[in-house]
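Cast an eye over this sequence plus tokens and explain the fold to me:
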Amino acid sequence: MLPKTEIETFASDWVAQNLRGVSRSANLPHELDSLAAWLTRDARSRGISGSDLNRAVGDIDDYLMERIRGQPGTS
């Protein structure tokens, strides 16, 4: 298992690269499911399990929603 800080860094970098332009639209719940699956798949490809990711960042959907809300220009 990787240290929590490394997993947090991975998640933060992933968000910076993959959430640009995602807005809070009517389709957001479906989009969040897709993004969470994509993040989890990419984490696994780097040896980070879904449960390790969850321990580091909390609920993945909530984590992604917070990041989307924090983006400039989202409503």
